[in-house]
Design brief:
Number of helices: 14
Structural class: alpha+beta
Helix content: 40-55%
Largest sheet: 5 strands, mixed
Number of strands: 7
Strand order of the largest sheet: 3-7-6-5-4
Order of helices and strands: HHHHHHEEHHHHHHHEHEEEE
Radius of gyration: 31 Å
Strand content: 5-15%
Distance between the termini: 79 Å
Oligomer: single chain
Length: about 350
């Protein structure tokens, strides 16, 4: 043990001397000396790690990344028992990533995950770092699904489990695995911070997940084949003051009734809503045409005469986005009411 410790100190002293020599004319000699030292079978594993790391960094600092990659990959191939092989390949992958060679970086990050045990370097898990990079650079939803699931199973305390479930659900949607997407959305909603979390790129994450899960559990028997069919049915019911028909036409889940300034997630966005109390004794009218701001997936019908304090209501229709059920996907529903004139 004492001999090994002395040897390790000697190597560190040797490396520290060479670390001060930054001129290019001495780099070749330094590498030669380090290579000879690396061939010494008596040095400890710690010393060998220090030598390999120094050689790799010398190559990299002098812009010889190809030589660094060749050196490290050859070392891994010829020394399969090296405890630090995951780290050497991580250096290779990171070099490719820095050079914008993402497919090659992905190959080596994946190789580390699949073929080498995890390793802590400076207190950080190599596998966790690989997974983070893979999720960012992979072009395949199927691959990202595997990465997200592995992060959840292996590193639940190192990530936002709430955001991860939401992003996993999106990936399942991308590959058409609707049952797994719904399960992931449900797991997202079970988290305490699901209604408040801010997810970059998805400001309405909670609303989307809640609406998707609620809709999946519903009968969906209120949907109409087309926007024209829905519009005509609603207009006919208003003209006949048939509140029962109107109540049957509205969505039975995720229905909202709110001002333009409110959000569907607000507590005052009523879901339990009936037209009965608003049709008796009032003269209800509607525009002949849908509002000009309507789009191929959303439409607004201006109506008025409902109450003395909020006279104008815009009935909000939207196309159903639910590819999990091809018979329902693309149909139309009356999804809510906006109170007052448009802002």
């Amino acid at each position: 043990m004492k001999k090994t410790f002395v040897t390790f100190l000697s190597v560190l002293l040797f490396l520290s001397l060479f670390s001060c020599r930054d001129s290019r004319d001495k780099s070749a000699k330094t590498l030669s000396e380090l290579t000879l030292l690396l061939e010494d079978n008596t040095i400890s594993a710690q010393s060998r790690y220090a030598v390999i790391n120094r050689i790799a960094n010398l190559y990299y600092s002098h812009g010889k990344t190809d030589d660094m990659i060749l050196f490290l990959t050859e070392w891994v191939e010829t020394h399969p028992g090296d405890t630090y092989n995951a780290y050497w390949l991580f250096m290779v992958a990171s070099s490719y990533l820095n050079a914008n060679e993402e497919p090659l970086a992905e190959y080596y990050y994946e190789r580390i995950i699949k073929n080498f045990p995890d390793l802590l370097v400076n207190g950080e898990s190599i596998h966790f770092s690989c997974l983070r990079h893979l999720i960012q650079i992979s072009k395949s939803s199927a691959n990202r699904i595997n990465y997200f699931n592995k992060m959840i199973s292996d590193f639940p305390d190192k990530l936002s489990i709430t955001e991860t479930y939401f992003r996993l659900a999106l990936e399942y949607e991308n590959v058409g695995e609707w049952d797994m997407a719904l399960k992931s959305y449900a797991l997202f909603l079970e988290q305490n911070d699901s209604s408040t979390i801010q997810i970059t790129g998805f400001p309405n994450a909670y609303t989307k997940a809640r609406q998707t899960v609620n809709f999946s559990k519903s009968s969906k028997d209120w949907t109409f084949e087309s926007l024209d069919a829905l519009e005509n049915a609603v207009k006919k019911a208003i003209s006949a003051y048939n509140w029962k028909a109107l109540d049957s036409y509205r969505s039975k889940v995720n229905f909202f009734a709110m001002s333009w300034k409110s959000s569907e997630t607000d507590t005052n966005a009523q879901e339990e809503f009936s037209m009965r109390g608003y049709m008796r004794g009032n003269r209800i009218r509607y525009n002949e045409k849908l509002d000009d701001t309507s789009t191929p997936s959303e439409a607004y019908l201006r109506t008025w005469g409902w109450t003395s304090y909020i006279n104008v209501w815009y009935l909000y229709f939207r196309k159903v986005d639910f590819p999990a059920d091809p018979e329902i996907h693309g149909r139309w529903e009356w999804a809510g009411i906006y109170f007052g004139e448009k802002l």
